[in-house]
Write a structure and sequence with these properties.
It is built from ten helices and eleven strands. The chain has helices at residues 18-21, 44-50, 60-68, 116-129, 164-170, 195-206, 219-224, 226-246, 257-273, 283-294; strands at residues 5-10, 30-34, 55-59, 73-82, 89-92, 107-110, 137-139, 155-156, 175-177, 188-190, 211-218. Strands 8-7-6-9-5-10 form a six-stranded mixed beta sheet. Strands 2-1-3-11-4 form a five-stranded mixed beta sheet, sandwiched between helices.
Amino acid sequence: MSPPVHLHTVLKTTALTTPLKNGALQSDQAMLDFTEISPIYRAFAPMVHESKFDISELAIVTALQAIAFKRPVVLLPVVVASRFQRGCLVSYRPHGEVKPEQLRGKRIGVRSYTQTTGMWVRAHLVEDYGLATTDIRWISHDLAHVEQYQDPRFVEHPAHDKSLLDMLHDGDIDAAIFGNDLPEGDDYVPVIADAKVKDMAWAQQHGFVPINHVVAASAEICKRKPAAVRAAYGLLVQAESQQIASSSGPRKTLSGFDALRGPLEWIIDACLEQALLPRKLSLDEVLGPARALLESETA
């Protein structure tokens, strides 16, 4: 038997990925050689620009933009991060209360206009309050991970290098969207009241929790070592199944072609409203390459 193929892999350490990193789950066809990158979004640009990794976590918006601009990545139908998002939009109490109904014409800061958390917050503002993306002034420092994408003209890039938190404190912006760096303390007030209640109702209505990160493989490794990529996908599916089995509450998988169809259609439409994509992507464009790879019986 041939030795396993080594795959240069970048995945954030979570309950899902830990058994892959500690060797609890293994394959005789693929060995995942992990590189640790923190924060994980720093892996996204090298992956889509130069296929620096064989397997990499990608934000869903980055993955869709990469596909739209013909970058050499293949989106695998597996979700590694999902969460509720409404509570990520906060104001600063000392400057006064900010309500969603007051956001038209206001300034909202976000690390990058293309950040997936920002996409979800904007989508919720559209759906819940009828606020079109262009109704709000978007303030952002970082550009897209996919260099071919250019921020829309309604996105402002300040000349200073203040952090998002400093801009919020100084009153340069009226509210801000944070991801994993959501600030703690009573001074940071969710703009959307009862965010958790609204999030749960949304999930009940739509049948899924908002997707943040998926997994992509380089097109080159898919062509050169398809069996190894299939084995890596199999490990990810096993890891997800174990996580669901050990969860104390009800969960269902978001991975797999059938499970992802509805969420992807919803996300693509939201991205179009926000000018995050140059055109509407078909599900065949998004999932077709992975389907051909994973359903192939060619070793």
